[in-house]
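job 3f2a | input accepted
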Amino acid sequence: MGHTDRVRAKSTDAVIRPARSEDLVGVHQIATGFGLLDAWPERPDFLDREHATGRLIVATVDTRVVAFTGAFRRGDLTHLGDLFVEPQHQSRGLGQRLLDRLLSDASSSITFASTDPRALALYLRWGMRACGVLLYLTGPGRPNYPHETIRAASVDRIAALDGMASGGDRTEDLAWYGQLPGVTIHTSDNGYAFTRIVGDTIIVGPAAGRTPTDCATVVTSAIATHDTSRTVRIAVPGIHPLAPNFIKSGMRIVDFDTILASEPDHISLDRYIPHPDLG
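job 3f2a | predicted structure (279 res):
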């Protein structure tokens, strides 16, 4: 039996189960290899949060983690945040097995799929439908867009609006994110926006407004409260009014994903800015 045959056999025999604390080293090694933790220089990170909520699933071969998937729940909506398989174990059915385990009790689901055709096929087979593109932008983030008066807020103040725009309640996850170093929750009368300072970068999201204009205005106002020399990183749905404005202001598209959902109308893509990792 050749090396490829051994890998195929071992992948087929992989154990799929909820992650244990001792699995987190292997999960983080895979995540680092795929560049998932660039915006998370310190722990706890979003993978630790998925583990804490019981939504992190691993595939192990001979007790070693070779793949993982994780999710965040928003009421009845499950946001599939990540699904990654070591290169030597890909195309062996592990992705399907992990997804089956993770989403076994999900009534509806959403994910941001990479441009890998295998990932798109996997989610389409599960029953999700493509409903938009998500643009990952970086740059100055100073579009010619109206500003408004904003103020710092608590999670309780913005939870209802977030639930309406994002597809379901996730107050506990937002509270966890809100207490991390560098995070500020900005609110206006009709919108909110999270920002997080990581080094010389402003990471924006989640954010939402009662209308697309409300969302766009609170986002640009929140960015304006920070040092203008910082670089902005933000994930913007292609349908959102800020997408063309950010591009015109000099921001660059550094990557993009396809947004897929089992029920696309559960999320308002024109008045919502997701967090790149939390959804």
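job 3f2a | The chain has two domains: 3-106, 135-254.
job 3f2a | closed
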